[in-house]
């Protein structure tokens, strides 16, 4: 284990020459996400290790196969955190898989998305070339920010080798409050609170209860609690939500991830819903036809992803023609032989 850049680049060059499709895999914790992987597995788990951590500069660089838990433990020792609160969704979660999937946790609307914290990256492109983009400071990008382009690309544009991330100090304290509200009232309350200078860091509604998390200095939390009201609750709820361990996520019914404008009223869709991100993210357990779900969500100004279960032939919302052409051009530029996770995002790339 350690730096396997040379070995991995050689394998990609060989695969490109032979036309062999490669399935990029670190810990395999998110194999369920996207279309079904097809090809020979390129094991990235051994390419691991924290390359640099500058606590005073709030920057960490690690190899893509580094376990996410190892990174979080390192940051915790210095009172720091990954502010986008990435979900592990399995014990083998790695930094590379986290960035490739581009998933963020409950803190996302208040702190930013995973891509907002990517400062730079080293990758292997589909020709087997090792390329570096960005760096280790915030103001280092002139032109197209390729390092952030890797976030959410599911490995279709390159093999992540290293990622440099902006990190933040962990909050001094956290407080979770719960209020009894229906979905409509919860969305309205989240909109009201969003317009006020409050230390919110998460907001979720499910089964008639609005969960709110405050983060910051203890005095600020006490003042905010007096303004917001509600009963204090166990903050472990947010970890269970992030890792999809709540009872809502159990079972085999397809799980949909609906991205919507936060103020959107509750959607009339068959199945059970959970509202996260103060209204911007809706989880839906439903066996309704994919087309009907997507049409309803699109009419509300959003898009729908089949996150887990169901028919994986087209898990992501269909792209408009112009955007689809752009995606295909990027794929050809980075991976002309089409060997890196082919078809993982969409069937034609």
What order do the helices and strands come in, and which of them pair?
Layout: H1 5-18, E1 22-25, E2 40-43, E3 50-54, E4 59-63, H2 68-77, E5 80-81, H3 95-101, H4 108-111, E6 118-124, E7 130-134, H5 146-149, E8 159-166, E9 168-169, E10 173-180, H6 183-194, E11 200-206, E12 209-216, H7 218-228, E13 231-233, H8 236-242, E14 255-259, E15 272-276, E16 281-285, H9 290-299, E17 303-308, H10 321-334
Parallel strand pairs: 1-2
Antiparallel strand pairs: 3-4, 4-8, 5-9, 6-7, 6-8, 10-12, 10-13, 11-12, 14-16, 14-17, 15-16
Describe the structure concisely:
The chain has helices at residues 5-18, 68-77, 95-101, 108-111, 146-149, 183-194, 218-228, 236-242, 290-299, 321-334, and strands spanning 22-25, 40-43, 50-54, 59-63, 80-81, 118-124, 130-134, 159-166, 168-169, 173-180, 200-206, 209-216, 231-233, 255-259, 272-276, 281-285, 303-308. It has 349 residues and is an alpha+beta fold.
């Amino acid at each position: 284990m350690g730096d396997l850049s040379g070995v991995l680049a050689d394998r990609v060059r060989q695969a490109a020459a032979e036309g062999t499709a490669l399935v990029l895999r670190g810990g395999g914790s998110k194999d369920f996400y996207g279309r079904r992987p097809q090809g020979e597995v390129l094991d990235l788990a051994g390419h691991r290790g924290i390359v640099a951590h500058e606590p005073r500069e709030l920057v960490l660089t690690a190899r893509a196969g580094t376990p996410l838990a190892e990174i979080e433990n390192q940051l915790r020792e210095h009172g720091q955190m990954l502010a986008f609160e990435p979900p592990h969704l399995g014990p083998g979660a790695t930094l590379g898989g986290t960035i490739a999937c581009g998933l963020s946790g409950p803190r996302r609307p208040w702190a930013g998305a995973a891509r907002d914290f990517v400062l730079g990256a080293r990758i292997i492109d589909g020709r087997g070339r090792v390329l570096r983009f960005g760096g280790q400071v915030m103001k280092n990008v002139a032109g197209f920010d390729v390092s952030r382009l890797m976030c959410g690309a599911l490995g279709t544009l390159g093999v992540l080798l290293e990622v440099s991330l902006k990190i933040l100090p962990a909050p001094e304290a956290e407080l979770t409050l719960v209020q009894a509200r229906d979905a409509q009232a919860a969305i309205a309350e989240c909109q009201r609170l969003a317009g006020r200078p409050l230390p919110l860091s998460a907001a979720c509604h499910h089964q008639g209860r609005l969960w709110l998390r405050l983060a910051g200095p203890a005095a600020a939390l006490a003042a905010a609690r007096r303004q917001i009201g509600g009963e204090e609750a166990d903050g472990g709820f947010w970890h269970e939500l992030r890792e999809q361990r709540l009872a809502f996520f159990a079972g085999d019914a397809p799980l949909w991830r609906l991205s919507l404008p936060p103020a959107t009223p509750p959607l009339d869709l068959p199945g059970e819903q959970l509202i996260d991100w103060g209204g911007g993210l809706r989880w839906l357990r439903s066996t309704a036809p994919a087309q009907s779900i997507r049409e309803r969500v699109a009419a509300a100004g959003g898009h729908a992803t089949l996150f887990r279960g169901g028919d994986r032939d087209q898990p992501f919302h269909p792209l408009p023609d112009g955007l689809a052409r752009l995606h295909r051009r990027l794929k050809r530029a980075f991976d002309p032989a089409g060997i890196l996770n082919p078809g993982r995002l969409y069937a034609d790339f």
